[in-house]
Amino acid sequence: CLATLIIMLVGDTYTLINYVSFINYLCYGVTIIGLIVLRWKKPKIFRPIKVNLLIPVTYLAFWAFLLIFSLYSEPVVCGVGLVIILTGVPVFFLGVYWRNKPKCVNRLIESVTCWGQKLCFVVYPQGGGAEED
């Protein structure tokens, strides 16, 4: 969010859309790669929808072409998109990977989460119930 706010203040909306679209397509391709890997490593698990492997492999070939073309034609935009993705790595390590956090850090995370939920009207805070009309 902070990187998006900085880009919105410094740049224009068109540039932000380019950054986000590169990130989206990168994530789509990684998802398809995950689908293929799971079909290969765990062929026996239940799948409610079965797709012929030719479809994801074909999609992945077109995806690779478009991604390589994007990297070639606009390397700065793609690089900034990658930097935006990488800003989530420290957040992951601080919030998820680090298991034995001090209580003050846990309280801070909980208060920020509660504040965000109240701000966005997403979830009722813990201990609170739905208000009746």
UniProtKB/TrEMBL annotation:
<keyword id="KW-0472">Membrane</keyword>
<feature type="transmembrane region" description="Helical">
    <location>
        <begin position="79"/>
        <end position="98"/>
    </location>
</feature>
<dbReference type="GO" id="GO:0042941">
    <property type="term" value="P:D-alanine transmembrane transport"/>
</dbReference>
<feature type="transmembrane region" description="Helical">
    <location>
        <begin position="51"/>
        <end position="73"/>
    </location>
</feature>
<keyword id="KW-1133">Transmembrane helix</keyword>
<feature type="transmembrane region" description="Helical">
    <location>
        <begin position="16"/>
        <end position="39"/>
    </location>
</feature>
<dbReference type="GO" id="GO:0015175">
    <property type="term" value="F:neutral L-amino acid transmembrane transporter activity"/>
</dbReference>
<protein>
    <submittedName>
        <fullName>AAA1 protein</fullName>
    </submittedName>
</protein>
<dbReference type="GO" id="GO:0015179">
    <property type="term" value="F:L-amino acid transmembrane transporter activity"/>
</dbReference>
<keyword id="KW-0812">Transmembrane</keyword>
<dbReference type="InterPro" id="IPR050598">
    <property type="entry name" value="AminoAcid_Transporter"/>
</dbReference>
<dbReference type="GO" id="GO:0042942">
    <property type="term" value="P:D-serine transmembrane transport"/>
</dbReference>
